[in-house]
Design goal:
By secondary structure, this protein is mainly α. The chain has helices spanning about 1-15, 15-45, 55-75, 80-100, 110-120, 130-150, 150-195, 205-215, 230-240, 240-260; strands at about 225-230, 265-270, 270-274. Strand 2 and strand 3 form a beta hairpin.
Length: about 270
Amino acid sequence: MKIFHDLGVRVDNCAEEIDRRNRKNFLIMSDGALVFAALSFAASLLLSFYRSLAVPHGILFLYCWCLFWAARICEKKRTGHIRTVMYLCFAPILGMAILLGSFLDPQRSAITIIILLCILPLFIIDKPWRNFLYQLLFAGLFVICSYLAKTKIVFQEDMRYFPIYLAYVLGGNYFALADKIESAENYVLVRKEAQHDALTELLNRKSGEEQVKSLLEQNVHGIFTVLDIDNFKTFNDKYGHQAGDDVLCEVAKVMRSVFRTVDVIWRLGGDEFA
């Protein structure tokens, strides 16, 4: 569908910012999950009527502990494939929910898988078709497992409302995705305007100096060069400021074509560049 394609293109256009937000979301989700799992495990150890759930709660606590450290490693290393990592990390808990709602408890209608299908994808900002395919995959696995494990009556009870819940989940997730993508786009636009010179579209002085400082702190070796346009004031006075602006833009264009994309190029001010 065109609407999905358009959202996917917008995701590609601000992929770096979206991945930064995904790493942040992974941290938030893993922190909350670990606290919840720790409290549940402690309750199952301390409360007698809750003790029968000690083993599954212990497994959940270990899983959330792994998520906790995985999120921090991804943040530290600025993992580029964070969306794939999150899909893979969330798969075990969705798989456990499917088993819990089918083979491990075949006498009751499932609810955990519906809740997780609603909550977990909300933490991943990605192209809609990937997000939906992920949810539909686990929804399909649940239907198959429920069919194999449960009696006809219980299975029909599960399936009576499951498609409706799934439709609500997919619809809500789409609108949430669209809003998050728009927010990322707006942030990228504002940041670009704040970091770049309005005329030449090169980095402005403040942003250029910050990037060079960052490279120096990382012990990245390189060459620092300052250049200016000879007799630019005379040219400006003779042909006018509009022509002078055109010259500045042409110089910036040439600089972008000559230097590498990893080089830091910025306008110091006036006719001076670095």
